[in-house]
Amino acid sequence: MSKFSSHHLAAALRREPGPVAALRPFITPPTDAAPGTPFRYSIRCYDIIISMLAVARLFPAMESILSCLLKAASHIRPREQLLCCVISSYGHPNAYMYTSLMKGLCEKGDVDAAVRLKEKITGDADIVLDSAIYATLVRALFRVGRKCFYEDGRDPCAVFALLEDMKKSGCKVDVVSYNTLLVGLCKLGRWQDASELLEDMPMRGCSPDVVTYRIFFDAMCSDGAFQEADQVLDEMVFKGFAPSKDGARIFVQGIVRKANASSLESMLCRLVNVNALESSGWRELLYLC
Predict the structure, then answer these.
(1) Can you tell which superkingdom this protein's organism belongs to (predicted)?
(2) Taking the alpha carbons of 232, 233, 238, 240 in that order, is the dihedral positive or negative?
(3) What is the DSSP letter of 267?
(4) pLDDT tens-digit profile of 244-284?
């Protein structure tokens, strides 16, 4: 007699008259394996039982098995169609539910499936995309070294294409969206694109906030671009924004040895104006001087 496998279980599940009856062989497969040996389910087995439970709206059982599937995702991954079926079983899905789903896909590393899901949502006139959906995708795409939704290496300003995509989808581009993009660009060392994005914000009716400038300033200081950071500091002080304490400390360390007395005085005045130096920073500055 051949060993009872996931293939046999999938066939058995299809023969059951309903989801309740199908739960029994799924939970306790008739296997001849040694006691304590876990049964190796296939993604097809999960697809069948979860879909049956979803259609029947047996949510507690469905959620329990779905949780097991997500925990086992190191060797099997849920399919996009299955997750869409789960969402649909709860009612007409909203942007929040799609955002949660895309976040889960991104955390599992399946960024391509998340992007496909975003494209599917775009085609649904009843779903209004919000900035959280784009922020979730952008963070994931930058994390794996991808250029937003566009793979054309000839396009140095793919982020602007993303902003246009958000606009066309009826999604308001807010400061959180811009800050998310700035973080990604700064991590990639794309200063020119980041600078253009910062300049683009007011033209799109979105004013940079203190977080925006801190992202830009801190990243420049961490990368050793102190001359450029000095120019950003001017604009921050003009607006009454203070750099972060860490950013100010790194800036002082990087610029003090190259600066003359007059430029040092100017730097100190600007940092004092926005209360950007802690007592430890003053002690360090005196030591370096």
Answers:
(1) Eukaryota
(2) positive
(3) H
(4) 888 888 887 777 766 655 666 677 778 777 777 665 555 55
d(CA 57, CA 62): 8
* Burial class (CB within 10 angstroms; exposed 0-12, middle 13-18, buried 19+) of 194: buried
Give long-range contacts, CB 8 A cutoff, 24+ apart: 96-103. Answer: 96/132, 98/127, 98/133, 99/130, 99/132, 99/133, 99/136, 102/133, 102/136, 102/137, 103/136
For residue 248, give the DSSP letter: H
User: For residues 134 and 162, is the Cβ–Cβ distance under 8 A?
Assistant: yes
| DSSP 8-state class, residue 192 | H
Q: Is 134 helix (H, G, I), strand (E, B) or coil?
A: helix
Please tell me whether the overall predicted TM-score, pTM, comes out greater than 0.90 for this model: no
Contact 197, 157 (CB under 8 A): no
| 87 vs 98: CA distance, rounded Å | 8
Per-residue pLDDT of 118-140, as tens digits, reads 777 776 766 766 677 777 777 77
